Amino acid sequence: MTTNNDVKDKHVEEQPIIEVKDLKKYFPIKSGVIQRTVGHVKAVDGISFSINKGSTMGLVGESGCGKSTAGRTILRLLEKTSGNVYFKGEDVFAVNKKRLRELRPKMQIIFQDPYSSLSPRLPVGEIIGEAVRQHKIVSDAEYNDYIDDIMNNCGLMPYHKDRYPHEFSGGQRQRICIARALALNPEFIVCDEPVSALDVSIQAQIINLLMDLQEKYNLTYLFISHDLSVVEHISDTVAVMYLGNIVEYGKKEDIFSNPLHPYTEALFSAIPVPDPNYKMKRIVLSGALPSPANPPSGCKFHTRCPKRMEICSKVAPTPIEMEKDHYVVCHLYNKETENEPEVKEEENVQ
Amino acid sequence: MANNEYENKPLNTDDIDSKRVIREDFVSEDRSDALDDEARIKVLSPTMLVMKRFFRNKLAIAGLIIIASMFLFAFVGGLISPYGEDQRFYTTEEMMKDFASGSFNKEYKFDYKSDITFSSTARANFVLALNKKETTFIDGNHLSYFIDSVTENFHKISELVPVAENVMRVGDDLVFTAVNGYEITDELKDAIVSTMKESKTQLSFEGKTYVIKAQGRTSTISVASDIAIASKLVYDAYEQDTVFDYNFKLFAETAFNTEGADTFTVNDVTYRFEKDGDEFKIYKVDENGEKEYAKATNFIVSPSMQDMFLSIEFKEALKESVLAKQEKFISIDDKNEETEFKIYPKDNEYLVKNMQVTRVLKSYSPPSSIHWLGTDRNGMDILTRLMYGGRVSLIIGFIVIAIEIVIGVILGGIAGYFSGWVDNLIMRIVDIFNCIPVIPLIIILGSVMDKKKVHPTDRILWLMVIMGILGWPGIARMVRGQILSLREQEFMIAAEATGLTATRRIFRHLVPNVIPQLIVLATMGLGSIILTESTLSFLGIGVKFPYASWGNIINDVTDIHVLKNYWFVWIPAGFLILITVMGFNFIGDGLRDAFDPKMKR
Question: pTM above the 0.95 mark?
Fold first, then answer.
């Protein structure tokens, strides 16, 4: 793997570029002949965070917990159910279509699947440059040089412009996706699991490319991933999501050295250690992820929590700041409930 | 070692070397070099790639060649062919045909003065009176006629004009009332009185014939004036333009029935005649001598066609043969050529037939150097019909598919892009259209057009419109399905995220991705449309005569005789339908495989 030098050189500003306040995104469940709404899938159920300009926030969680939905809702690619998203202080959901189109280039997204995220019928140069021309990012005279420059920065050669996506490998396609996002001169990029479809060596190239570009263009990332080692490598802050909620949020160093939430502990215990003599203390969570359409009452994690308490199934916990900027949403750390007895081990097994 | 660039690497150059380069790239972090595969210079767009894949498919090439040659055949062939689409060909043929008919005349022929009418009632009453042996009869207009029977077969008919009514004979005197201003002289009076004394009913006086008709105690005296003759003789002329008038016949008949006479004069022209059995041969006599003029006979010969003049020679030959009870004879026909005639007796009539040359349609003539594929029932060149039929079939195919695509893409696109209730509505319309039984509906519309007597050209247009309107649901369904799935593809979300306008998203990203399936569907659809059109034309509700279509060319085969004996009528058309549909299907299959990125190269 590469060194962390470039990470340390980032100019992180204290001013938040994106602020998410109690964002909710429910998908209606329709059934019957007249397509009546019978319930909602609570994909994102009230998340709040902010990201400072030039920093990277890692958003981790298991599959189906709402990470990608959160990422897309923040960019208003999906309409919210409630809550607010502020981009540089401007409510993303309050602007009209015209203003939204002006905002689009500033907030970009890189998708997980580099195969389906490129239109198979357009040459690469067109994929990258189409929006550049529409938004008039550069003048027509500079256009070709600009695209060449962007492609070069993303590790693509100018002659790749006339080729079509099917002629590229996964890693190259992901570079094209990055180039497409980058060409619009964005300030904030949602990286929606950008490397999980790639093999490890290419992952490293892409991660390093992203970090290089962040340094060069002072980009802000929301890095969505389920791969904790990648998140550890790239992030400044980390948020852990479980079933539509953020359960723990803090600086990367704090979270990785001192995970507080039982879910985070379980998650981190699954990171493989490249040492054959190391005996792993795996915390194996029983059961599957509950349905987001019908989430458990109280703390949503209580059905699978090894440290479950009486209160957990009744009252939803609130964020508690354990260290500076390190929040955890768990009754374990609530001083008022601290003394209540833990649930017996047998019950937990059942 | 990870080497996912492997598949994009050129295989023709040094493979090991390129792998090594990648490893070095990875270590040195020189990422731009990692993608440097400049060795592969040839760049293929998706379209080019599809073409390349398509042309590798032998069946697709075969299909393309078939369709191309079909276009040449239909569009260029029609221009090259020396014959027209509905040009009929004729041939001459010898066949037994009615020539004339002869019979012995048993009825009276009436001839009368040109300035009077002699009604059919009068003719009937004449025959009745003759049978009752009466000498007078009347007609419907209360005109009285007097019959002067010269012989059994020759009667003079006179009109009676009353000259005196209430005539009574008193001794040798006569009491009467003169009518019509007719002056009865004393000499006439005496003649009448002497006639009445002898109880006769007619008398001749000063060249006029008077008829006394008793009515109770009184009588009416009328003067008779010749107006008609009834005879059983038929006059045949030696010259075609000879006309026999009343006067000629009157004098001729009178002369025939006069003992010892052999000439008569009509209008200062003298005729001489010779009696030959029951026939009379009449010569016209003038300063140049005698000339055959006419013949009066009891044998009547009428030609099968009006305007046809039969010579006396033929008529005589026929009469002789009939009398000799011969079945055939040799004589001259209306063109003075000697031919053999056959006699077919029927009742009292004798039909005469001979071999005649006639112009007939060149139906079902087998393939020859003039008509390479022969001719059809209407005597039209089949090869030329096939060319024009191909035009109609191909044009219908393309226009129908164009209509289907326009409607299908618009409605399917709207349904797919907007989804929700619009989608629901359009898909229900599609369901309704899928429930319509196409063939019965077209049959009904076809018979409606028959009833309205729609012109064949308009009929083709209507056929295209109907087939297009009935055919779009398949395409709409496909387009809608494609757009629904494409809409959710990440590149569409990416396009939205980059802030592209909706029009750009639809026309730059959505539509190009639907086109491959559309092309495949359209190509496959063309084959089935041509089949449907052929079926409809075969059933007689599609393209109508005189326009050719492969379907209505095969229509001839509804006759089992044609099916068995004239293979050249239906095999070529069937073969053309077969290979054209097959060609379109091959191309469609080839395109589908070529568009399918998962296909092996």
Answer: no
